[in-house]
Amino acid sequence: MEYSSKAIEAKWQEYWAKNRSFEPSEDFTKEKKYILSMFPFPSGRLHMGHVRNYTLSDAFARYYRQQGFNVLHPIGFDSFGMPAENAAIKNGSHPKGWTYDNIDYMKGEFKTLGFSFSKERELATSDELYTKFEQGFIIDMYEKGLLYRKKGFLNWCPHDQTVLANEQVVDGCCWRCDTPIVKKDMNQYYFKITQYGDELLDDLKKLEGGWPKQVLTMQENWIGKSNGLAFDLAFDEASLEKLNNKFKSFDVFTTRPDTIYGVSYTALAPEHEIVSYMIENNLLDKEVVIKINEMKNASSIDRQKEKSGVPLNLHVIHPLTKKSVPVWVANFVLMDYGSGAVMAVPAHDERDFDFAKKYDLPINAVIKPFEGEANCDKAYTEIGELFNSESFNTLNSKDAQSKIIEYFEEKKIGKKTTNYKLKDWGVSRQRYWGAPIPFVHCNDCGIVMEKKENLPVALPHDVLINGEGNPLENHTTWKHCKCPSCGKDAIRETDTMDTFVESSWYFLRFCASPKNWENEAFSAEQIKYWMHQNGHEGVDHYIGGIEHAILHLLYARFFTKVFRDLGYLDFDEPFERLLTQGMVLKDGAKMSKSKGNTVDPDALIEKYGADTARLFILFAAPPTQELEWNDSAVEGAYRFIKRFYERSSNIYKTDTIPAIVHSSLSKEEKFARKKVYEALVRANDVYGEKYTFNTMIAGVMEAMNALNLQANSDVWSEAYWILTSIMEPVIPHTCWEISSKYFSLNNLRVQKVIEEVFVEDTITLGVSINGKRRCEIEVASDESDENIISIAKESASKWLEGKNIIKEIVVPKKLVNLVIKD
RNA sequence: GCGGAUGUGGUGAAAUUGGUAUACACGCCAGACUUAGGAUCUGGUGUCGCAAGACGUGGAAGUUCGAGUCUUCUCAUCCGCACCA
After folding, report:
1. Which of A451, A504, A747, A788 could pair with A559 in a Cys bridge, judged by C-beta atoms 3.0 to 4.6 Å apart?
2. Chain A, 150-169: which CBs lie within 7 Å of strand B?
């Protein structure tokens, strides 16, 4: 009975493949579970983060199959993207060949890890069939005005030679290659995600409980809703003249209208159109222009270092006091938030204060603390009581805010406004390996959508990828086409889509039978089934890394709402429960090639087998915590499996669970049974809410330790009937092997908990004196409190001598506490 | 700066939610079997102490018969956001 991971694992992997064991049933009357892991980018090999991710989802999928659910547990590859092109530049490979070779290899790895994915629903998002439907949705969205093209200042990564969405810029650098981004002015397509800002924010409430709090907070902050007042600041006569009457005013936004009487200057972003106009028309001194250009060109990190600005020698009229207020350009004013202009109240805003100090601008306090006096040594940013504010004096900040907004609205000089940090999602990428945006530029008709029957607009195979420019733009023939509307010569759009578009709807694609994939993106009937259950909506368990807390998860939520409004779906949120797994660390740091602290899954499987890898991963830490890799603990996992396998020699063949008369057992046998059923209870707790596989496995180990203390083959056999069922989601190969050998696979299903094994004749109670544990006593489980106390007193007599007992507490089945006094 | 999380043996971690702190595992120590052991099995292992015992969940205080768990303050580490007007 030597344990051989290789022979056992290969055998069952073949068996599962041959028997289509993990294909979902199309019997839609059964209860279902949709278990989904975030699909991988086919970079070449799986890393430990993937293994952890898929081990978790696989455990869920296998558990629910045992429980009799119809389980959809699909996988695919997020296969467009820049690494394929970077590899092309480096090795001369073709992105497509490189991608699909990697996919083949990684599919092999899935198999050797025993993951119970549906093979038949596997897909790659670079498949033309996938692009075809995606481009169809893009056209729908364009028609609805949810996709538009405009010129703007974009985040440009000089290394990847492409633009990035705001979400994809991390600390001023490219999220993929860490190159500092620069701003570039160019045309690009945007999804109007801001139109869904409110709903994306409000619906976070529906996800409470199902999603980690942290992710909800991050999304909330990202959307960044703030309420306030927007109003116009009109130029004075001299300024109007200076601007050739081109601009009469500009718009500002404030969340603190209560501080409006404290305005002492206003500031425009260096990119503001009024500033640009003045530069273009030589209305500014040379030195001023140089300073403004410096501000514009500074990286976002440099720009944050120190506040700086220049006056424009323009003035606006304060809307309430009618006083003249100078207009400055300031580097801390951001063009892409609000209107790119601010009213500055140095007395009550730290940024405005710093700037005013530096340039010696007036600081006018208008809010004072409810207790105490106004103080101009630093900005007072708390709420308080208004003064120097004409008719609003003595109001508190909160009341003043609404009163002042009301006043502006009455006078029609301003409006209550909501602003969002969230910006529209820029989706153009100037690269080859992505889904082409299915539009055509026609001299006569403008931007024209490709006809749906002509989809997909597929990529040309013969491209030159050398890292210079956009390969589609440079291709000699591909971009030339006929206008779908007028038939004249036209040019194809050469931008491709951000790969986050593909991952925004892949979970819906799995809701279709592969035999219909040619004809439909997803099936209404299957969406209705897989994405709904008992009033709940969405994927039942979605498992992946926290690094997608904003990007992918926000985009997927947005697409779900758009698809709903396009009439394709009838629910609001795609993922009901989200489990974000922790990182895999080695030597205290995230595994990475550059640090040289990686563990190769293939080598691990070669040495110990997939079951060992899976067991270690689930045992070493709870899923949401970081997982510190430990080679000798892996060894320990291997030894446990080996023991578990070899001790099956204690059991006999049976097709039903052995019947045992509990009362006839010895103390050790009863104890072993109790431990086995305790493990079962723990196992059932894991999947609902707690996900604590580590304690479930500890329970099984405890049961094994208890079984070793006795030799009753009925008890052993019953135990294995249950334990192989509990452990099957974790170490499936070993469990199927044992189960097929002894139980004809009949035990891999719901197990019943028997209560009688938990009933004990005697119980052990701790005895504490003044809360300090002193000794323990063994009493009959139905002993009266009165007797328990007298037994406790007797056994603790040593500590009670000469003391008065003033209180006696019995905690049922736990302990006795005696409170004494000298 | 703002927001969130975490802090328990040499290590990864448990603790049925206010009731015997350290389950389970790794490591370590000792023993058995062995030509041998990086195999297997058995036993031990929070700290101090010869012992009785004392101390012990980052630190300080509080509530309680009783606190890892609740309250207040504080320290440390990690993560997210960050000139968002």
Report:
1. A504
2. none
What token pair was written down for A512?
């279709």
Please state at what angle helix A713-727 crosses helix A693-707, rounded to 10 degrees: 170
By the 10 Å C-beta count (0-12 exposed, 13-18 middle, 19+ buried), A565 is classed as: middle
Q: Tell me the backbone φ, ψ of residue A272, rounded to 5 degrees.
A: -60, 145
CA dist., res. A768 & res. A783, Å (int): 18
Is residue A481 within 8 Å of residue A469, measured between CB atoms?
no
* Mean pLDDT of all residues in A267-272: 93
Residue A326 tokens, joined: 């100078």
- Residue A630 CB closer than 7 angstroms to strand B? yes
Q: Which nucleotides of B are covered by protein (CB under 7 A)?
A: 3-5, 11-16, 19-21, 23-27, 39-42, 53-55, 65-67, 79-81, 83-85
The rounded distance, in Å, linking the Cα atoms of A93 and A99 is: 10
**Could you please report the per-residue DSSP string of A255-310?**
S-GGGGGG--EEEE-TT-HHHHHHHHTT-S-HHHHHHHHHHHHS-HHHHHHS--EE
Instruction: Compute the Cα dihedral for A337, A343, A349, A350 and give only its sign.
Output: positive
pLDDT at A492: 96
pTM recorded for the entire structure: 0.92
Considering only A334-338, A447-451, A558-562, A703-707, which range has the smallest mean pLDDT? A334-338
Chain segment A23-53, per-residue pLDDT in tens: 999 999 999 999 999 999 999 999 999 999 9
Q: ipTM surpassing 0.85, yes or no?
A: yes
| Core vs surface per residue A506-518: b (16+ CB within 10 A) or e | bbbbbbbeeeebe
Q: Which amino acid is at A361?
A: L
Segment A656-683 shows an average pLDDT of: 94
Q: Facing residues of A127 across strands?
A: none
- A705: its two tokens: 């330790």
Nucleic acid strand B within 7 Å of A227 CB: no
Asked if A543 and A581 touch (Cβ cutoff 8 Å), the reply is yes
Question: For A631, what's the count of Cα atoms within 13 Å in the CB-facing half-sphere?
Answer: 8
At residue A277, the pLDDT reads 94
The better pLDDT of the pair A305, A566 is held by A566
Q: What is the mean pLDDT of chain A?
A: 91
Residues 779-798 of A with CB under 7 A from strand B: 798
Taking the C1' atom of every nucleotide in all shown strands and the CA of A704, the nearest one is: B24
CA gap A669, A679 in Å, rounded? 16
Under DSSP, is residue A709 helix (H, G, I), strand (E, B) or coil? coil
* Single-letter residue type at A596: G
Q: What angle do CA A100, A613, A81 make, to 5 degrees?
A: 25
- Written as six digits, the tokens of A772 are 């300090």
Helices (H), A686-762: 693-707, 713-727, 732-743
- Where helices occur in A420-500 by DSSP H, the ranges are 471-474
pLDDT confidence of residue A167: 66
